[in-house]
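Changelog entry: the Acyloxyacyl hydrolase record was regenerated in this release. Current contents:
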Amino acid sequence: MVKLTALLFALFSCSTIAMEFEVKLGGWSDHLKKNDTEAIIREFIDPEFEYNENHKGYGVKWYFYELSPKWQINLEVWHMRDSHDMDYDSIGLGFTRDFPLEDSFLDKISLSMPITYVDRSDILYSDTSAEFIRKEFVHFMPYLSFYKKGFHVDFTVLPHDTNTGFSITAFARLGYRF
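Regenerated structure tokens:
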């Protein structure tokens, strides 16, 4: 968390040279296809366990270089409570491509394509026990954003293939672009 706070401070202190930035809030998910994780946690750790689907997240996306009027390079920092209701921190560096819309309710749709470092909880289990552990990894995490006058909704679908099976989670959050 200290690393995340320091990075947010650095981003805000550089805002005078930043092109634009977005504040991200919330985070809601739906576990569309569940793997065996929930059942394993119920059996070995907490019989009342249910996936957290209200993530109470916050973060910043900073657009620091424009390749063309429709392509930007950005850095994104995000913190939330993960599906196990534990800390989730990520830092992503990527490209965003804007698709302006004319004669539409929406102003534009953007495709963000970050490579993201993630630090979150995971489950380590065997046939006789299970425990929560921390897991760090880097992966590609694309998402779409739907804009109306600076306000937007980010949406992604996240496939997971872990030692507890394959799952699919839909995720959305709110934001505002300054």
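Residues 59 and 78 are 4 Å apart (CA to CA).
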